[in-house]
């Protein structure tokens, strides 16, 4: 019969590891939000496949990032016409999909960055 006593060590190590994982995940999510913000700005300014927005100044300068709570990030535009640029209008304005396409382009990069942030723990 083999007895292995690890519970004391586990009780001490696991909370520290869990705290480290939480901290790294939150930091990775924050970095990802700023990466996405930059990618959306590149899209708006015409450096990606989407059509460039005509009024790039105001729209480009107003891509915000908020962190309402741990593990959450919101990348948004407070401009009143952002939704029309993203999805188009019934009057014939074509959608530009700056947010949607940027999120799709960045998704694999963000996922890998999040994985990498906790890989060595």
Instruction: Describe the sheet with the most strands.
Output: 2 strands, antiparallel
- What order do the strands of the largest sheet run in, or round the barrel if closed? 1-2
Strand content: under 5%
Gyration radius (Cα, Å) is 21 Å
How would you classify the helix and strand content by structural class? Answer: mainly alpha
* Helix and strand element order: HHEEHH
Describe this structure in words.
There is one protein chain. The chain is mainly alpha-helical. Helices cover 59% and strands 5% of the residues. The protein is built from four helices and two strands. The protein has helices at residues 7-44, 56-61, 82-87, 98-118; strands at 64-66, 74-76. It has a two-stranded antiparallel ribbon with strand order 1-2. Strand 1 (64-66) and strand 2 form a beta hairpin. The chain is elongated. The two termini are 32 Å apart. The mean pLDDT is 86.
Please name the defining characteristics of this protein.
121 residues; elongated; mainly alpha; two-stranded antiparallel ribbon
Structure at a glance:
A two-stranded antiparallel ribbon has the order 1-2. 15% of the residues are buried.
């Amino acid at each position: 019969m083999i007895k292995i006593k690890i519970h004391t060590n586990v009780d001490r190590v696991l909370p520290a590891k869990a705290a480290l994982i939480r901290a790294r995940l939150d930091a990775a999510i924050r970095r990802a939000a700023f990466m996405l913000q930059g990618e959306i700005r590149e899209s708006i300014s015409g450096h990606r496949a989407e059509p460039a927005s005509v009024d790039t100044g105001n729209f480009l300068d107003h891509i915000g990032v908020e962190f309402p709570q741990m593990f959450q990030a919101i990348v948004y535009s407070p401009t009143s016409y952002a939704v029309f640029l993203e999805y188009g209008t019934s009057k014939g304005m074509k959608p530009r999909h700056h947010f949607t396409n940027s999120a799709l382009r960045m998704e694999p990069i963000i996922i890998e960055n999040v994985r990498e942030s906790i890989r060595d723990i």
